[in-house]
Amino acid sequence: MRKMAVVVVGIVLILPSLCFANSQAGRWGVGINYPGVSVKYGINENHAVAIKSQFGEDIFVIGPRYYYNFNPEERVVMCIGGEADYLTFKGEDSDGSGFAVGIFVGGEYFINDKFGVGLDLGPVYVSIKDEETSLYEEGVDYVVNISLSYYFGGKGK
């Protein structure tokens, strides 16, 4: 947990000082995140949408995301957003599904015109139900997402 805190503080303090003209309007991004994949589209300079999935042993999550970019022409694009996800899980003693709804704050550092490294974090409300036992669980947790994206199309640099 300490290592993650150091990384977050480093990104927040150091990266915003770098400038880079990079419009996301009309651009597509395909990315990998830990642990999953995503497809992102820049509606215009300030608004983007994505479909993100994450998967692991016996769990699958998929849903749309919305991003509001505060400074789309910078090398580090700061954003806020939200997402809604459908999830399924299967374990030794459980098998079910549910949903998650969250908000996040974060940023994406553009290494160059084509590649960006993203980090966002925020609270997520999760509601799941075990189909075999009808047990129901809900609560709020905090999630950190890390991604690497490749962008193409649109205006670019």
Give a verbal description of the structure:
It contains one helix and eight strands. It has a single domain, classed as Porin (Beta Barrel), CATH 2.40.160.20. It is elongated, with a radius of gyration of 17 Å. A hairpin with a 6-residue loop joins strand 4 (59-69) and strand 5 (76-90). It has 157 residues and is mainly β. The protein has an eight-stranded antiparallel β-barrel. Residues 5-21 have low confidence and may be disordered. It has one helix spanning 2-14; strands at 28-33, 36-42, 47-56, 59-69, 76-90, 95-110, 115-130, 136-152.
Helix/strand order: HEEEEEEEE
Shape: elongated
Structural class: mainly beta
CATH hierarchy, class: Mainly Beta
N-to-C terminal Cα separation, in Å?
Answer: 36 Å
The CATH topology corresponds to: Porin
Write down the domain tally. Answer: 1
Portion in strands: over 45%
Which architecture would the CATH scheme give at its second level?
Answer: Beta Barrel
Rg calc: 17 Å
Compute the number of helices.
Answer: 1
Side-by-side strand order of the widest sheet: 1-2-3-4-5-6-7-8
What average pLDDT do the residues reach?
87
DSSP, total strands? 8
Contiguous uncertain segments of 5+ residues = 5-21
Largest sheet: 8 strands, antiparallel, barrel
Range of helix content: under 10%
